[in-house]
Amino acid sequence: MLLTIGAQGQHIIKDANGNYTSVKKQKVEPTSIGKTYTDSKGVVYPIYKGAKGGMFIIRTSAKTNKTYKQYLKD
């Protein structure tokens, strides 16, 4: 039972000999939709669309200087 639960999150392909191989999921790059978002401070960000259809902007933290996605609501 535990083996089955662990295998659910993996992507598996079958080769010509009938053997199964685990493969990593392909990472899809976000695409710009050509529109912008302006925050309350007047900073303009391009809007991106993710693989599942969510729209977001990429911000940079002032404290840690790391980038992160901020998803936008309708």
Low-confidence stretches: 1-7
Order of strands side by side in the largest beta sheet?
A: 3-4-5-6
Structural class, from helix and strand content?
A: mainly beta
Reading the helices and strands in chain order gives HEEEEEE
N→C terminal distance: 42 Å
What Rg, in angstroms, do the CA atoms define?
19 Å
As a percent range, the share of helical residues equals: under 10%
Topology:
Layout: H1 2-7, E1 11-14, E2 20-23, E3 31-38, E4 44-49, E5 55-60, E6 67-71
Antiparallel strand pairs: 1-2, 3-4, 4-5, 5-6
Q: Can you describe what's shown?
A:
The N and C termini lie far apart (42 Å). With 74 residues, the protein is mainly beta. The protein has one helix and six strands, in the order αββββββ. A four-stranded antiparallel sheet has the order 3-4-5-6, with no helix packed on it. It has a two-stranded antiparallel sheet with strand order 1-2. Mean pLDDT is 85; it is low at 1-7. It is elongated. The chain has one domain. Helices cover 8% and strands 45% of the residues.
Q: In brief, what are we looking at here?
A:
This protein has 74 residues and is mainly beta. The chain has one helix at 2-7, and strands at 11-14, 20-23, 31-38, 44-49, 55-60, 67-71.
